[in-house]
Specification:
single chain; 237 residues; Rossmann fold; 7 helices
């Protein structure tokens, strides 16, 4: 299968489903991370032009560690808007990998870019196979299945399915720590320690998943005409 992970910022994929990406890759599936914004807000010391380059470089390193490809759309950080242009850009990106499954943010109201990304990904997923909507890359053969990822710290998210990432948690952590500038920014700006956050949240989800050491949580979007009967998470496919 071809998996597209549509995220707002560099590092979102690593935080919320880095272990699941590795599990998909271990099973031979293709994974592409689509990053909508350029991360230009995420520094208290570097100017915008420089931090954009650094964060793209870090994002590509993190994706490489996970074994994923990366598409960088480059919209302004914290000012992503739901427009015709942004919708077609995300649609083109997911069509370029012929996505069978799309993951995106849960609409959690934590961050405007997360909410906008979620809205765009949710709304364009049913359009993937529509031939009259033109993009550079052709329509998919069928409509992809859509999953929502967990929220940051798990607030307001009610998981439906879990993926055991115990054996690949170290890879997830290594990929996340490739985002050195964001690790520093979050410590300074919000007093959050990356490593501690993902350890605590993954352990909590592990307990909820039935007592495994680490897990990641998801819920599929089961609305007409996208309902599915069987799970497409990596422990099943």
């Amino acid at each position: 299968m071809n998996i597209a992970v549509v995220t707002a910022h560099p590092d979102d994929a690593e935080i919320l489903m880095g272990g699941t990406i590795v599990r998909y890759r271990q099973k031979g599936h293709s994974v592409t991370i689509v990053i909508c914004t350029n991360g230009e807000v995420g520094s208290s010391t570097l100017p915008k032009e420089e931090i954009i380059k650094v964060r793209e470089r870090e994002a590509r390193e993190g994706a490489k560690i996970l074994g994923a490809d990366l598409i960088w759309l480059g919209y302004p950080d914290m000012f992503l808007m739901d427009t015709l242009e942004s919708r077609l850009a995300v649609l083109n990106a997911t069509r370029s990998v012929q996505a069978d499954v799309v993951f995106t943010h849960y609409p959690d109201f934590y961050n405007p870019d997360h909410n906008t990304t979620s809205k765009i990904a949710n709304d364009i997923t049913p359009l993937q196979d529509a031939p009259n909507i033109k993009t550079k890359f052709p329509p998919t053969k069928a409509m992809p299945t859509l999953y929502f990822m967990d929220t940051i710290t798990g607030v307001a998210f009610d998981p439906v399915e879990y993926v055991d990432i115990s054996e690949v948690f170290d890879v997830k952590k290594k990929a996340l720590l490739a985002h050195k500038t964001q690790y520093t920014w979050l410590k300074e700006h919000t007093k959050i320690d990356y490593a501690d956050l993902i350890d605590a949240q993954s352990r909590l989800r592990g307990y909820q998943a039935g007592g495994v050491k680490y897990a990641e949580a998801f819920r599929h979007v089961n609305t007409y005409p996208r309902g599915i009967v069987n799970s497409l998470l990596p422990q099943y496919v």
